[in-house]
Write a structure and sequence with these properties.
The chain is an all-beta fold. 0% of the residues lie in helices and 51% in strands. The relative contact order is 0.08. About 2% of the residues have low confidence.
């Protein structure tokens, strides 16, 4: 099942269960999830290839059946929470669900290779769609126009993010990071030492042009979107293993989870001290994390357990806030 929880800041007991979704909605197996930007809806999709949209009370608001036999490989809300995009294995079609009209439509990309990325713009109406052969398609939800850019990368597009000034940053298995404008035109490019993944652009009140990418699974490269060459490499102890997930928070800080079960917090600002602010082995195996900017807390999960780390002033594990799922629920894959 999928469990949704809420957090009430500045209270002694902060974790509050909102609702739980049973396996009947998904079928047995892994579940893909995505919160609405304003937290109004939770979109989920499991082995049965049915996208469910629940409100904050856990009531089913919409149900979107996917065609074909491929599993759901991506759920992405646009910045306004108006539209949900659904990517499916072995399908060139992106399903679109309009939250205002409670209606669905289909976007046929026309590509023959596997789709590997869907990513809505953080500033405009564009949806970036990447493929296993390095091709790119940009869809505008306002004009309904599609712009195809062949050969954006030489190999699979693995990750992408949009900046606040509507620039698209992509990483690929070809060890390149590209920066493009909203039409897909190339602006800059930089080489990585290894395959790049998990590109992120931290949200900042004053904008900003900082981006980050995981290189080779164990190094975090922080760079300026406007001047991507060079950047700052954040290397971690080999003891930690591979990065499984990371999140920006606060003023240039980054929280990182590793496949060894370690959880680390350090500054990622260019020119700032690279000293670790917090490091602890929370689990025996791979961990995943989510960060609440409002409460400055991290939820880190592995196996059937979720642990909470306080990221405000003093960094500490909040042992009284940990949660353990029933054995019949299976292992946790991620938190969001």
């Amino acid at each position: 099942p999928w469990v949704a929880g809420g957090v009430r800041p500045n209270t002694a007991t902060t974790m509050k269960k909102l609702f739980a979704v049973s396996p009947k909605s998904h079928g047995r197996g892994s579940v893909t999830v995505a919160w609405h930007p304003q937290g109004s809806f939770l979109a989920t999709c499991g082995k049965n290839r049915v996208v469910n949209v629940f409100n904050r009370q856990g009531e089913e608001h919409a149900e979107i059946a996917l065609d074909g036999s491929g599993k759901c490989t991506g759920l992405e809300w646009d910045k306004d929470g108006e539209m949900l995009a659904v990517m499916q294995e072995k399908s060139p079609v992106i399903k679109l669900w309009d939250a205002n009209q409670n209606s669905e439509s289909s976007l046929d990309t026309g590509v023959k290779e596997e789709l590997t990325l869907i990513c809505w713009s953080a500033a405009g109406p564009q949806l970036a769609i990447g493929t296993a052969k390095g091709n790119l398609l940009i869809y505008n939800k306002r004009t309904l126009k599609k712009q195809s850019i062949a050969g954006k990368h030489a190999k699979t597009i693995t990750s992408g993010a949009w900046s606040s000034d509507n620039k698209l940053v992509l990483a690929s298995a070809d060890r390149q990071v590209t920066i493009s404008n909203a039409d897909g035109d190339a602006l800059a490019q930089t080489a990585l030492k290894a395959e790049g993944s998990a590109i992120q652009i931290p949200a900042r009140g004053g904008g900003g042009s900082v981006a980050s990418v995981v290189s080779g699974g164990s190094t975090l490269l922080v760079f300026d979107v406007n001047k991507p060459t060079g950047g700052t490499e954040l290397k971690f102890s080999p003891t930690y293993g591979k990065v499984t997930s990371y999140r920006w928070f606060g003023d240039g800080l980054v929280a990182v989870a590793f496949d060894s079960g370690y959880f680390v917090v350090r500054s990622a600002e260019v020119g700032a001290s690279t000293e670790e602010l917090f490091s602890k082995k929370l689990f025996a195996g791979a961990a995943s994390l989510a960060v609440s900017a409002q409460t400055r807390r991290a939820a880190v999960c592995s196996g059937r357990e979720i642990k909470i780390v306080d990221l405000d002033d003093e960094y500490r594990e909040m042992e009284d806030e940990s949660m353990l799922l029933d054995s019949e629920d299976g292992d946790l894959q991620h938190v969001t």
